[in-house]
Design a protein that fits this description.
559 residues; alpha+beta; Aminopeptidase; 3 domains; eight-stranded mixed beta sheet; four-stranded antiparallel beta sheet; 20 strands
Length: 559
């Protein structure tokens, strides 16, 4: 059962919403309280929402749902589709190459408040993984559905003039910790750019009215107890629209329910306080989208989603190819209508007050802090800031974290405490001080700039390795895939091994789940292969990645 008929869904106005009081007062401007039936027109945000075309969304899902890992032909074709479509709709279009990928940014200037922007985005790249049958992931729900919804929303939003500027973004790097959106959000905050609202569409196509089709994370039972209970009381059906917003977007997040109610579609809204929205302790679903970098920069942002792998077994090709055949166009239409409505109201200067974001206060490479301080990321999702130097451990020295926070370590200025390039006892690897770097940094022979902490433009210099040289990294280490600042895809770095890595034939989800010399092939650890390293027993060598630092790399098909 993959599609939920509209008449089986719990009406949105009966769905419970968990809201937590914001820590910043008076951020929301008045919202309309009553919505009538959605009828296509151009006189209001609601009228424009009524123009959303279900068939157009379905057609674009089919066009976008091709294998499109970073640097591949599919990636380029979808990037071109975004640019060409937005240009045809009258947007000013730019391809924003931020060093690790390319965002496509369409801009339509506002009339009375052009310096205030509303951003609508969706990530367009896919995971380089194969499905359980060894086929390249199509990524229909993750995230062709979001891109298709984005393009249809752009079409209808472009039909009327608005007070504020509309920015429509096809984000790159969604499969790499949302680095494309993070690069743009970081630059926006640094420039003091005012954003009234950011809406992200991620995995918006799957709905099921079957009992127990919706997984409820334990974190929801703690932070959103009433909503979790309401979902469970309804049979844990995966047929509702989910809206996750930070406290600065509490008004628009709640407003999603008003729009979804017009189609009698169930909806649950989640308003996250600042400490949860910017925490890695948040449930995976709450930060799975390109809204998360804007939460971290203190912009009002919300995610519209079907909750991805918490509902869709094929998401990220975990158990299937993730094709458009499993998606529900009527469900996608409701999500897009809701997005158009809340974005349109924000564009009319009635939806949310703008904020200028939170910018870095120092430079990780320049280390421009006062004497006795160092520029660091005190927590993973927060901007760089000056903090006191503890012990001042030098490059390569053993370090630790006095307070268990990511950036609160004993390294000296310009260094970060990390475990790459070291082995331990197979359980808890030691850590050493490594140099901060960016895409232009020459890390020296045998090293490259390893992406860390979800940063779009910084990493640490770490030892690289040859995936075919088993044992080349040393004891208790493994040559594992990770992201290299100089590549839009992947590279290989020496990483700590643990006792839990899979042997050949063992189960896996990611390549880094396998032991040295092995990659993850359709959920099973298998040997790496290429033209110079054929598979044993004449097994096929199936390519697994585009944009990787080892051309032609693959994994051996199971025997």
């Amino acid at each position: 059962d993959t599609a939920a008929p509209a008449d089986t869904a719990t009406p949105a106005d009966t769905a419970e919403a968990d809201t937590i009081a914001p820590d910043t007062a008076d951020t929301a401007l008045p919202l309309d309280t009553v919505l009538g039936p959605l009828t296509c027109g151009a006189e209001s945000a609601a009228a424009v929402a009524g123009c959303v075309d279900e068939a157009a969304i379905a057609a674009d899902v089919a066009a976008v749902a091709v294998a499109r890992p970073a640097g591949s032909a599919g990636w380029q074709s979808v990037q071109d589709l975004c640019a060409d479509r937005l240009a045809s709709l009258g947007f000013s279009v730019a391809r924003d190459d931020w060093g690790g990928g390319v965002n496509v940014i369409g801009t339509r200037a506002g009339e009375s408040e052009p310096d205030v922007s509303v951003v609508l985005g969706a990530s367009y790249d896919t995971t380089p993984r194969l499905d359980e049958f060894g086929r390249a992931c199509r990524g229909a729900d993750g995230n062709a559905s979001g891109v298709a919804g984005l393009l249809e929303a752009a079409r209808v939003l472009a039909t009327r003039d608005t007070a504020r500027t509309l920015v429509v973004a096809c984000w790159d790097g969604g499969g790499n910790e949302q680095t494309g959106a993070r690069a743009w959000a970081t630059a926006a905050a640094k420039a003091g750019r005012e954003l009234a609202l950011v809406v992200d569409l991620h995995a918006i196509g799957f709905a099921s009215a079957a009992f127990d089709s919706q997984t409820i994370p334990e974190s929801w039972r703690g932070s959103f107890a009433s909503t979790a209970q309401a979902i469970e009381d309804g049979g844990s059906r995966g047929d509702f629209v989910a809206a996750f917003g930070n406290e600065l977007a509490a008004g628009p997040t709640a407003r999603v329910a008003d729009y979804a109610a017009l189609s009698e579609r169930a909806v649950h809204t989640f308003a996250l306080p600042r400490d949860l929205a910017t925490s890695r302790d948040a449930a995976w679903a709450e930060r799975e989208g390109s809204h998360a970098p804007f939460w971290d920069r203190r912009y009002p942002a919300l995610l519209l989603t079907d909750t991805a792998s918490l509902r869709n077994p094929d998401y990220d090709c975990a158990h299937g190819l993730d094709t458009g055949s499993t998606l529900d166009p009527a469900f996608m239409k409701v999500v897009v209508e809701s997005a158009v409505g809340v974005v349109g109201e924000a564009l009319d200067a009635t939806g949310n007050a703008p904020t200028a974001g939170l910018s870095d206060t120092c430079d990780l490479l320049a280390q421009d802090c006062d004497d006795g301080e160092r520029c660091t990321l005190i927590a993973t999702n927060l901007p760089a800031a000056c903090e006191p130097v503890h012990d001042g451990v030098a490059l390569g020295g053993t370090c630790n974290h006095p307070s268990d926070l990511v950036g609160d370590d004993t390294c000296g200025p310009g260094l970060r405490c990390a475990s790459w390039g070291l082995g331990g006892d197979g359980l808890l690897p030691p850590e050493q001080c490594l140099s901060w770097c960016d895409a232009a940094t020459d890390c020296g022979a045998g090293e490259a700039c390893h992406v860390v902490d979800r940063l779009p433009d910084h990493g640490v210099c770490s030892p690289t390795c040859d995936p075919f040289a088993v044992g080349g990294c040393g004891e208790f280490q493994v040559c594992a895939t990770s992201h290299d600042m100089a590549h839009p895809g992947w590279a290989f770095f020496c990483s700590p091994a643990t006792a839990f890595l899979g042997a050949e034939g063992g189960g896996c989800y990611l390549h880094e789940d396998c032991r040295d010399g092995l990659g993850c092939h359709a959920g099973v650890c298998q040997p790496w292969c290429d033209a110079d390293h054929p598979c044993p027993d004449d097994r096929a060598c199936d390519p697994v990645m585009d944009g990787v630092s080892v051309p032609g790399l693959g994994t051996c098909a199971p025997g």
